[in-house]
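During the second year of the project, the team shifted from modelling isolated chains to modelling whole assemblies. The rationale, set out in the original proposal, was that interfaces cannot be judged from single-chain predictions alone. As a representative example for this report, we include one of the complexes processed in the last quarter. Its constituent sequences, exactly as entered into the pipeline, are reproduced here:
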Amino acid sequence: METLWFWLVSVMVAIYVVMDGFDFGAGILHHFVAKSNEERREVLAAIGPLWDGNEVWLLAGGGSLFLAFPKVLAAGFSGFYLAIWLVVWFLMLRGISIEFRSHVEDGLWRHFWDSTFAVSSILLPVLLGAALGNVLRGVPLDASGYFSLPLWSDFGLGAHLGVLDWYTVLVGLFALVTMAAHGAVFLAWKTAGPVHERSKGLAGRLWALVLIFWVLATLATTAVNPAILRNLPHAPLAWLATLIFLGGLGLVFTGLHLQRFLLAFLGSGAFILGLLAASAACVFPVMLRSTLDPAFDLTALNAAVGQHGLRVGLAWWLLGFPITLGYVAFLFRFHRGKVSAAAEGEGY
Amino acid sequence: MGDPLFWHRLQFGFTATYHYLFPQLSMGLAFLIVVLKAVGLKTGDVRYDETARFWIRIFGINFAVGVVTGIPLEFQFGTNWARFSQLSGGVIGQTLGMEGLFAFFLESSFLALLVWGEKGLSRRGHFGAALALWGGSWLSGYFIVATNAFMQHPVGHALLADGTYQLASFWTFLLNPWALAQYAHTMIAAVVTGSFVVASIGAFWVLKGIHLPHARVNLKVGTAAGLLASALVAFPTGDLQGKLVARHQPITLAAMEGRFESGPRAGLTLIGQPNVAQRKIDNPIQVPAVLSFIAYGTFSSDVRGLSAFPQDQWPQNIELLYYSFHIMAGLGTIMIAIMGLAALLLWRGHLEGNRPMLWVMMLAFPFPYIATTAGWAVAEFGRQPWLIYGLLRTAQGASPTVHAGQTAFTTLGFAGIFVVLGLLFLYLIGREIAHGPTGHQA
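Output from the structure prediction step:
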């Protein structure tokens, strides 16, 4: 049961990254792919009806973590205190940037929100990627089950760790280019005209960059947390996940080559999902690794709530999850086809 | 001030109070939008659809601010109250998890369809989107109230040897009688807020002599829903809530009333200033025996005062608790009177011509906001010194590794963000009101 919940939480988080990832990508790129107000609104029309639902995957994933592994939530959120609040503040800024921008027909007003949208969309993947980096690297959890990390110390991996060090920033940058590349194929799929052309042009270059960062991040991870490499042969799920992300990568390049952008987008989603699943399979059952002593690790087994709670949670989760997928399918179907900018006063 | 607990509590109180200004209007408006759309759908009267369209635009802005101010609350469980989350996650993780899966997805998926999708949807489809937002926002309300109810009156849990609380009975926990009473009270209060806001705009337009057809719809719907909801919020839901407090939190009841000595035929204090040092109410104006009746159903019932309880179990902030309760109850009474009078005038066909009454209605919209804020202050100050009533003290729930400097930093950050957000909100809402119900077509 604990194992199952480990995977449910991982899947929710991975879906979050795939879903919010494409609208992060749109935000990272919109200054480059959309030059005029009309083009910016085209980008916003593509993500506007979806971004809020995408972000709920984070809250729902956090809710599942709370439900099943409150010890991990408690230690992680309080230990990463300032980093968590930076993420929250940028999420808030990004939300109102999207929602408020088109309410007022004024160049300065829109210029301002376009900038905040871009800045928050760039910083969030870096911070969230760094968070993943922290999970892979480990944190100074002690016998109390808690830890505290400053935002940064000396950017090294020595005795005084910080949330941001060279390794976690590297993972953050990997996340940034991946989200940008993911967003580029999404925009290429959903838009037409100049925005489509520019997104298409950027997608190939960005995916090449993803490959470079993927190699760097993988090498760095095996150096920082050698246990991951040791676990790999014994984790069949990791092999499956590796196949998924390699297959996804293949689809991305095939799709880009054939100009089939939905295919590329699905491949890009599979790449992210598979990569995160492979990471999860390699660290399983550890959820928060201690750099002080493996005995202090928070794992799916020692951090879970009682069996009854897990079983009850599973019952309603199995009810709610298909409904949620239904909403997502409905939304994508309702907004199918290429988007166009809404008329003034009638949309994002 | 160097005590992290002070900052954790200040941050939660401040961010939760500010946040709740928005969802109460969202939940109230969601219901009224469904009413307007339903009347429009049934009668084919376009005034109702146009009025609904106006409120949907307000709803969209209000909802967005509600979402962004709500995110921090979700995170505070882990960041500021880690010990509490760790100990009680086995129970309250259920409702918080369900809120994400059942309520947030429903709301977020259909929000854009409601706000921007009218042209692309059939009339029924758009009505469906309104229903989805109503259902989603009210479900969300239930999960939050049920979580709070566990903190007020914990049921359905078991205490384990490691000090954690685990779920023992899901349905007992989910259908906590406290949650049911508090939910009814809270949701109806949200309809009061929605009704007062709708009626206020109606009165404003009539006084200005603009958008008269839509102003009439607002006055009619706002007044009818406002009277019904204002009455229901007091009785039976408020009364029920009061009786639960009397039974399960008698110390809180004593503090709410500023009652220090015990005895039968307890009087209800209308006005007076609690003097905690001397254990009495200064300058009291009281109605004899009414408190006994309200709390226990008979005039002769004994109502215990604070002196009957050990002082370490008293709520720490008796003054604020006392005033919050009296402000809530006093404003509740005034709101029933306003809506009662408005309904009478409306029924007799005199409301539109009665300018003094329209002025009152236009300016009365802050009352429900103040009353709901005060109501939550009663619930939360009244729960002290406990985080989970009778089980876990507030001081035991904070994050062990977070220090005052960190929480002060984020609290001040929120103060700045919320000022800016409030100004933006008022600016955008003001523009929508200036545009009126037909402004965007013109």
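Chain B touches chain A through 68 residues (CB under 8 Å). The mean pLDDT of chain B is 95.
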